[in-house]
Structure formats: C-alpha cells, structure tokens
Fold this protein.
Amino acid sequence: MKRKTDYPYLIPAVVVVAVMTQVPFLMTLIFSTIRWNLSRPDIPRVFSGFENYLYFLKIESLSDIPPFYGIFGQTVLITGMTLLLCSILGFLISLLLDHPIPGINIARTLILGPFFVMSTASGVIWKTTVFNTTFGWYGVIAKALGFTPVDLVSYHPLGVIIGLFVWQWLPFFVLIILAGLQGLDQEVMDSMRMDGVNWIEGIFRIKLPLIMNHLRVAIMLGLVFVIKEFGLILTTTAGGPGTRSYTLPYYVYMQIFSANHVGRAGALAAMTVILTLILVNLIYRSIERRNAKYT
C-alpha cells in the first residue's frame, strides 16, 4: 500500500523561505549587473554585465592591485582565527562544564551570556569601558602597573576584532560541543575507565573523535555567523585605520552607504555569499564523508 506523503503541507513553508531568502538574493544578483550610482541621479541606470565584478577582481598591474584582495585576506584571517580559537577554547571549556559539580548549572548559564548580547551594544561597551586608554579598564590597569597604555583599537585593530568575535561566539561553540559531550554513550565511557585509559587519551582519542561531527557543525554554522558579522566592526574600529579592519560585509556597507554604488555593492555581496556557500559546502561534505566512513 502506497503511503500518503505530507509534501503539500510543506508548500507554505517552502514559499515563505523562498520569498524571504531567494528573492532578495536574486535582486542582489540583478543589481550587481547594473551601473547605478545613487549620488549621480543624472546618469541613467544601464546594464553593465560583469563590469562591477571586474572592478573588484581585475588586476591591471602588480602595483595597482584592487583593495578587494587585501580585504578578502583580512576576512579569511579574522574568520579563520575566530573559528580556530572558538573551537579550541570551546572544547576545553566544554570539558570543564561536563562534570556534575555544585554550581555547574549557574556556570553553564553564565558562559552563554555574551551570545545573547547585541553585537552593536557589546562593541560600544568594549570600546568605551574596556579599551579606552583614559578611563577604560585596560587603561586604568595599565597605568596602575606602570605601563603606558597603547590604543589597541587604532594600533591592533585585527587583534581587537578577533578577540571580540571570539568573546561573542565562543558560547555558541560551547553550547554545541557540550551537547555532544553529554550525548556520549555512558557504556563507552565506563569501558574507557575499566580499560585503564588515562584522562588525556580519553579526551583526544575517544571523546574528541566521537563529537567531531558536533565540532564540524559548530564550525559550519559559526562560519556563516562570523563572516557576516558587522555590528562589532562598525562600533569599535569602523573598519579603520583606513581599511585595516575591513571585512567583505563591511566593504559592502561602505560601497552602498559611502560610495553610493548600488551595482558594486550588489556584486561584492554576491561574491561574499558565493564564497561562504562554497566553504559551507566543503565542511558539509566532510561531515557526510565521515558519516559514510563509520556506517
């Protein structure tokens, strides 16, 4: 007997998701092929093909490399370092929180705090109350120890951005990795103890391989969240000094709200989405290959 499917009930959800996600992306692709400058309404909007894409990608000479490549490298550096530090610290913190000790529920709740703070609000708080060299915590502590505080936001913008990104998204990694640790088969853990496996071997040869899919999922979702992060950069470094802390999403913002180039902003946004989808697809395929290997 052929079982009746429930596919018709999915149609409203599919339509809503398509309208909310695919239509804006389609409009972005259309805008990316148009020469449209908001500051020059006297110039007509015309179809320009891949001209906007070539503006960012075309290299005329080694002395005239478009800023896109440097900003792309900064985006990769910020995103890669953030994901690496969140993965390592998230795993270590999750190991500490995976024990039934007094007050552990309070600790688990507090560790999730930064994840629920708006990025713009946290950026303002960090810049004014922590990194400020005059009345911020950093400045006061440095002066108390006899050091001259250096303006970290101006002299080390990438380090500041990476540190704030890690602070913002580390709880997300802890949440997923801790769920993986608590979902481990208790019989496997008991067998590990009975076989005399020491603590270090148990962590890196048994626990870590068993939760590797959880870690990959955290990295995959974290990649999407981190690479599109905008508020922290806007409220702390504002992309500066110059373009030293630009990321691709912030570059899109500057193209549309500073340079007033709708087409170029659309092309840059489309390239950012495509690059993100490629990276997410690679991580997803690695999860599938690992699952196929152990099934």
Observations:
- The chain has one domain: 68-293.
- The beta strands are 34-35, 46-47.
- The mean pLDDT is 88.
